[in-house]
Automatic annotation (TrEMBL):
Gene this chain is encoded by: Lsmem1
Renumbered residue ranges of the record's region Disordered: 36-58
Keywords annotated in UniProt: Membrane, Transmembrane, Transmembrane helix
PANTHER family membership: LEUCINE-RICH SINGLE-PASS MEMBRANE PROTEIN 1 (PTHR36475)
Entry superkingdom: Eukaryota
Protein name: LSME1 protein
Pfam families associated with the record: DUF4577
Regions that span the bilayer: 64-89
Amino acid sequence: MERPSLEFNLPDTHEGGKLYVVDSLNNLNKLNVCPAESQRSLDEEENTGGTGESMAGNNTRNQFLFFVTFILTLTISLALVSFVIFLIFQTRNEVDQISSRLLSEKKNIEELKKLNNIILKHLNQSRIME
């Protein structure tokens, strides 16, 4: 049995070596220039063939998530503001009702005071006459 050859059939092995050195230098430069977090995205870009398909997909997905979150936040905010305005109107109506009741009760109390004074005067006069 023959052993498979580990050598690649390149037209010029010297040219292949140059490409390997340049690629290694590029990788080393990426490690030195880029922080650890962005190295992950560079690795993903290399895995996709350098076309940026993964980055474009992530960017579109992130924009979609941001848009959905933004719309959801606006909807919830609008609902909360509407509820607060409704509560303000309800409270205002109840305060108006209570104040009108208080005014009517104040009038009733003043009338009762007048009647009480009249009764007291009448009783005082009747005692004097007796």
